[in-house]
Design a protein that fits this description.
Layout lengths: L5 H8 L12 H9 L10 E5 L4 H14 L4 E4 L11 E3 L2 E2 L2 H15 L6 H14 L5 E5 L17 E4 L7 H4 L3 H8 L9 E3 L4 H14 L3 E3 L5 E5 L2 E6 L2 E5 L8 H15 L4 H10 L7 E2 L4 H8 L3 E4 L5 H13 L5 E5 L7 H8 L5 E4 L11 H10 L4 E3 L3 H11 L4 E5 L2 H10 L2
Parallel strand pairs: 1-5, 1-6, 2-5, 6-7, 7-8, 13-17, 14-15, 14-17, 15-16
Antiparallel strand pairs: 2-3, 3-4, 9-10, 10-11, 12-13
Helix pairs in contact: 1-4, 3-9, 3-10, 4-5, 7-8, 9-10, 11-15, 12-13, 13-14
EC number: 6.3.2.12, 6.3.2.17
Enzyme class: ligase
Organism: Paracoccus pacificus
């Protein structure tokens, strides 16, 4: 009897719990016990939380470690084109047969009991990681930290907290202090933590939690610094100064993310060559990614337009995109935007209004939480950005390319939209 493909199994797993998100660790502890605790057999874990920059920072740490010959497992979310992107085993995406078999094993051990999709897939990742030798395991928090499924690892080698800002308030709290408290939930007694530069309100919470756990902190802006100087990345800590090429991931904010990654790598005794590889070899799609092939890219190229893609979706993400656009060569910019109805769209669009001439709003196809295109357009007009709607991304790009030849077109607003674009654009 042929093994069902992973998409079929993943669809079944979505039905095990009435809520998509239900932050708790009890259900996962039960399942991991039934699986003989794979989370206790992982290669040394580097656990990464934060609001923005988690994925980019993880990608740079991974690039640096692999440049030194290390075998690295990595667990990230969400995926963009295929679920397999979430589980990287010793440097390679998990194969279809291995994914299907591991998911079915977890499903059988769970015996039909309530379990969220993320909890089940986290258990599958841990099981796969525990069976393949590696030197490190990089775990990206899915949501929050304290009650996130990845937080069942009792003694990581190192924790990392990237910049904390307002997002997911329905789950994490309405204030920066409350959100920082949830992120600081990944701190463990005696385990060092690299902390990116933070707003004072967030840093106070992180420092207080670390003091109670005797967790040594290495804080950006205090114990280490990173900045751009004459187009180069300069990093300095107590070990000395590094003068490196700029991060290959575009945007001024990546200098800060690179600093966080470099601080982590220096803690792990990485060489200068590994540090350079971290910033020059990292790959992280849908973060100001230039699209150069596929049907959409051809439409843009035929009109002399640049086509870009970004999945930032909260106010800090909007500011990062705006800063990136401001630092790029001057070119008339038009947005194609699709958002979820759970996001602060006004906060996201406000900084972008200064950098874009227009916005074309789309609904995200087959996404139940999509914000209707007309509401996205209304939000853009509210921040004084001219806005229209389009039936889909292809229509929007084609209309903009025809109306504004030679312009820059940026598809943005949601990772779900970015994933659809990457899938459909090959």
């Amino acid at each position: 009897m042929p093994m069902p493909d992973s998409d079929q199994i993943l669809a079944r797993l979505m039905a095990l719990h009435p809520k998509v998100i239900d932050l708790s660790l009890d259900r996962l502890h039960r399942l991991l016990a039934a699986l003989d605790h794979p989370e206790r057999r992982l290669p040394p874990v580097i656990h990464i939380a934060g609001t923005n920059g988690k994925g980019s920072t993880l990608a740079m740490i991974r690039a640096g470690l692999e440049a030194g010959g290390a075998r690295v497992h990595a667990y990230t979310s969400p995926h963009l084109a295929r679920f397999h992107e979430r589980i990287r085993i010793a440097g390679a995406l998990i194969g279809e047969d291995a994914l299907s078999a591991t998911l079915e094993e977890c499903e059988a051990a769970n015996a039909g009991l309530p379990m969220t999709f993320f909890e089940m897939t986290t258990a599958a990742a841990f099981l796969a990681f525990s069976r393949t030798p590696a030197d490190y395991t990089l775990l990206e928090v899915g949501l929050g930290g304290r009650l996130d499924a990845t937080n069942v690892v009792e003694k990581p080698l190192l924790t990392v907290i990237t910049p904390v800002s307002i997002d997911h308030t329905q789950y994490l709290g309405e204030t920066l202090a409350l959100i920082a408290g949830e992120k600081a939930g990944i701190l463990k007694r005696g385990v060092p933590c690299i902390v990116a530069p933070q707003q004072p309100e967030a840093l106070e919470v992180i420092e207080d939690k670390a003091a109670r756990l005797s967790a040594p902190l290495s804080i950006g802006g205090q114990d280490w610094q990173s900045w751009e100087e004459r187009g180069r990345l300069v990093f300095q800590d107590q070990r000395g100064l590094l003068d490196l090429p700029p991060p290959v991931l575009p945007g001024p904010h990546q200098f800060q993310n690179a600093g966080t990654a470099l601080a982590a790598l220096r803690h792990l005794d990485a060489t200068n060559q590994q540090c350079e590889a971290a910033v020059t070899r990292a790959e992280w799609p849908a973060r100001m990614q230039r699209l150069t092939r596929g049907p959409l890219a051809e439409i843009a190229r035929d009109a002399g337009c640049e086509l870009w893609l970004d999945g930032g979706h909260n106010p800090a993400g909007g500011q990062a995109v705006a800063d990136t656009l401001a630092a790029m060569p001057r070119r008339e910019t038009h947005l194609v935007c699709g958002m979820l109805n759970t996001k602060d769209i006004t906060g996201y669009l406000k900084p972008l209004a200064k950098q874009a001439r227009s916005l074309t709003a789309v609904s995200i196809e087959d996404e139940p939480n999509t914000l209707p295109a007309d509401q996205t357009a209304a939000a853009a007009r509210a921040v004084r950005m001219p806005a229209e709607t389009a039936e889909d991304v292809t229509t929007a790009v084609a209309d903009l390319a025809r109306a504004y030849p030679g312009s820059r077109i940026l598809i943005c607003g949601s990772l779900y939209l970015a994933g659809r674009v990457l899938r459909e654009n090959g």
